[in-house]
Amino acid sequence: MSCESPPPFAHKRPAGPVPGIVLARAEPITSPARFALGVAKLDGALGGGLAAARLHELWPAQAEDAPSAAGFAMLMALKAAGNKGAIVWIEQQARQGRLYPPGLAELGIDPARILFVNAPDEKTLLRAAGDVVRSPAPGAAVIVPAGPARLLDLTASRRLTLFAEASGTTAILLRAADPQAPSAATTRWRVAGAPSRALEANAPGSPAFTLDLLRQRGGAPSYGWQLEWDRDRAHFTPLSRDLAADAGGEYLAAG
Question: Distance between CA atoms of 237 and 229, rounded to whole angstroms?
Answer without folding.
Answer: 6
